[in-house]
Structure formats: structure tokens, C-alpha cells
Amino acid sequence: MEGGESSSTDKAAEEAPKRGRGRPRKEKTEEPDDAEPKPKRPRGRPKGTFKKPRPTEEKPKGSRGRPRKDAESPKKTEKKS
């Protein structure tokens, strides 16, 4: 009966030990010491301020937003019944 137990322990020794759930860790490749590191690749959308021209100082041409109500603007008249 001991022979069966030893074969199960041999299987465990052959397989890599599991660390946990998820993707296994990437095996590190050996690089020579004189190799220069690669520049990192940018990911995602760039912010857009890299080649953006600077705005010049200008005064606003008009007011922004919804115009205010003036006395000149037409108003609804009350209906007389």
C-alpha cells in the first residue's frame, strides 16, 4: 500500500507548486549587463498637451452663457377672459 502513496508524492514533485488563482507569473529572461533598458511604451490616450499651442492673452469678445432678460424683450401678456 505504501507504493501507491509514493507515486502520488512523485506527481506532486514533478508539477510546479501552485501559488494561487489567476495568471501565472512571467518567467524572467536573463539579459546581459551591458544591454541598455528599453524605453517604456506609452499606454492609453495621450493627454494632448504635448504639442498644443499656448493661448495668447485676449480679452473675451462677449459675455458667455445665456443672455440676461432685458426690459426690451417681449413678455407674455395676461389673457383676459
Automatic annotation (TrEMBL):
Q: Which GO terms describe its molecular function?
A: DNA binding
- Tell me where it resides: Nucleus
Matching InterPro entries, A to Z? AT_hook_DNA-bd_motif (IPR017956), HMGA (IPR000116), HMGI/Y_DNA-bd_CS (IPR000637)
Q: Which UniProt keywords apply?
A: DNA-binding, Nucleus, Repeat
Name the segments for region: Disordered.
1-81
Gene Ontology cellular component? Answer: chromatin; nucleus
Quote the biased-composition stretches of kind Polar residues, using this chain's numbering. Answer: 1-10
**Basic and acidic residues compositional bias, start-end:** 68-81
- Provide ranges: composition bias, Basic residues: 40-53
Q: What is the lineage of its organism?
A: Eukaryota, Metazoa, Spiralia, Lophotrochozoa, Mollusca
GO:BP terms for this protein?
regulation of DNA-templated transcription
Q: Main location per UniProt?
A: nucleus
User: What name has this protein been given in UniProt?
Assistant: High mobility group protein HMG-I/HMG-Y
Entry-linked Pfam families = AT_hook
Taxonomically, which superkingdom? Eukaryota
